[in-house]
Amino acid sequence: MAGLTMLLGRGALSRLACELTGVGREDRVVDVGCGPGGAVRQAASRGARVTGVDPAPVMLGLARTLTRRPGVAWLEGTAEALPVPEGAATVLWSIATVHHWSDLDTGLAEAGRALAPGGRLLVAERRTRPGATGLASHGWTDEQAATFADLCLGAGFTDVQTERREAGRHRLWVVQAVKPGP
Ligand SMILES: C[S@@+](CC[C@H](N)C(=O)[O-])C[C@H]1O[C@@H](n2cnc3c(N)ncnc32)[C@H](O)[C@@H]1O
To answer: What is the number of structural domains in the chain?
Structure first.
């Protein structure tokens, strides 16, 4: 049921991730916390090879069922222990998922390991208010977005940008960064 509700109204999020990272045929994308895989399919429709990673077998099962495209792989794993080799990705994103990561430093170190030099990182989270509880807290306050951007710098990423964005009905924080090039 959670996976099905995650399919509703999320196309705008997937399109925004693709547009901001400029995903194309030459890219290898890793989607960390892919859920039912909407952003994976969106990137694959642009010709990229894409790996969706999620710890929940039920999400991966739904993602597989919904996906007919070639060039897509699904792997069970977490942000903190990505099941991909070093330098596997030219683009790595995590959409509405970082608030689930159990360890931001380890997740960012893994993102840095999985990205090739010059690779692009994008993270999107819903904008939330301080003190929100339950589902309303699933996202970032202004302070949490700023903290994540600082952690990106600390993890060695460059060109760190933090922006407010709208995508359909979603009001988002988007953090983008680059792994230093060769
Ligand atoms: C709100 S859903 C978002 C799914 C998808 N990115 C989307 O936007 O439709 C959050 C996803 O994060 C996954 N998740 C939870 N903990 C995680 C972790 N430590 N690392 C990676 N993914 C995680 C969940 O299984 C779930 O599929």
So the answer is: 1
* Top mutation candidate among 5, 13, 53, 54 for ligand 1, by most atoms within 8 Å of CB: 54
Cβ-proximal residues to 132 (8 Å cutoff; 6+ apart), any chain: none
Residue 84 belongs to domain with CATH number: 3.40.50.150
Alpha carbon of 34 to ligand 1 centroid (Å): 6
Distance, C-alpha 79 to centroid of its chain: 10
Please indicate, yes or no, if residue 123 is contained in any of the structural domains: no
Report the distance separating Cα 120 and Cα 85, nearest Å. 16
pLDDT of 1 higher than 60: no
How far is the centre of ligand 1, averaged over its atoms, from the C-alpha of 100 (Å)?
7
- The answer as to whether 122 is a domain residue is no
**pLDDT 10s digits, 34-53:** 999 999 999 999 999 999 99
pTM tops 0.90, yes or no: yes
pLDDT digits (tens, 9 = 90+) for 68-81: 888 899 999 999 99
Burial of 129 (0-12, 13-18, 19+ CB in 10 A): exposed
> Does residue 29 lie within any of the structural domains?
yes
CB 29 within 8 A of CB 92: yes
